[in-house]
Amino acid sequence: MSRKAAVVALTALAPISWGSTYFVTTEFLPPDRPLFTGLMRALPAGLLLLALTRKLPRGAWWWKSAVLGALNIGAFFPLLFLAAYRLPGGVAAVVGSVGPLLVVGLAALLLGDKPTAKSLITAIAAAFGVSLVVLKAGAALDLVGVVAGLFSALSMSAGVVFTKRWGRPEGVGALALTGWQLTAGGLVILPVAFLVEGAPPALTGANLAGYAYLAFGNTAISYFLWFRGIERLSASSVTLLGPLSPITAAIIGWAALGQALGPVQLLGMVIAFGATLAGQLSPRTRKGGEDGETGKAGKAGKAQTGKAGKAQTGKAQTGKGGEAVEAAPEARAVEADGPFSSTEENRRKVSTDLETSAARR
After folding, report:
1. Tally of helices (H runs) and strands (E runs) in the chain
2. What is the pLDDT of residue 291?
3. Contact 242/93 with Cβ under 8 angstroms?
4. How many CB atoms lie within 10 A of CB 37?
5. FRET label pair with 173: which of 206, 237, 305, 336, CA 20 to 30 Å apart?
6. Residue 43, Cα to own-chain centre: how many angstroms?
7. Which residue pairs, CB below 8 angstroms and at least 24 apart, start in 141-147?
8. What are the residues whose beta carbons fall under 8 Å from the beta carbon of 56, sequence distance 6 or more?
9. Residue 201 has pLDDT above 60, yes or no
10. Helix (H, G, I), strand (E, B) or coil at 285
11. The pLDDT of residue 91
């Protein structure tokens, strides 16, 4: 497995894990507490990572980590849950699936990544495939839910692009950066959750187990892998892994909740998964690309070698106007002995080879 394939595989674990959120929420968590659920996902995970890494932001990274935390967590979670509560699950997933298209546009605007036909086609295909998987006939639309879903997708897409643009400060690992963002996002959700939903509900053992999974497996580890992937892959490649989340949710619903998967849903899975794979393929390097640069470098090296060789031979023996120039002590010794002996000639060849090799480097 290549290094890029390994990074893609690890990054893909994040959206696959997020695909289990619906199952855990419906089966283990108290109902009608979307903001409290978002808070419990983000803040405990962020505080844990801060305790493990023992690193705080410095300088401009105080506001940068706050912005990233708000985009990736603080705004994204509440808007996502609002869309999920106001819309049928299939409609909410389809609205959210426009993320890859938003990332393509934002990457062109903020990163200077010119959109290609391939990136646009794969993003559209991914959204179409997701719609086949999750969209049901007669699904009702709610304006507030649609707007919330679109803004949640925009928030996450902007978070991906700004994370790619800013990178991370020197000497700070991806784990610490993840902790900063989760903590900042959790602190954004905290006052809103208490103002809107009031005091936390009484929690059962099943509730605590569900929140523990969401906080640590589904959020701390998954977002670490996600931000690590953003750092090492292109923004469009990362966001095109997003369709793995609704695909996973559909598979879990079929396996654990007895939900049916018909031919249309299976076709949608194939299309969405194919778009995800296509988004990870590197563009072909044309002949004359990197190889061409290597060739140019090689020619430059040969040219330098030739010039160096001339400098070592002709210029060392003749001066301006053809006047003789005193040879180096080594050359004088050779002239005194007459023609090169075989040993001396071999030594001179080795010396010339070393000079040529150095010039090429």
Report:
1. 19, 0
2. 39
3. no
4. 24
5. 237
6. 23
7. 141/87, 141/91, 142/86, 142/87, 144/82, 144/86, 145/82, 145/83, 145/85, 145/86, 145/87, 145/91, 145/92, 145/95, 146/83, 146/87, 146/91, 146/95
8. 50, 180
9. yes
10. coil
11. 63
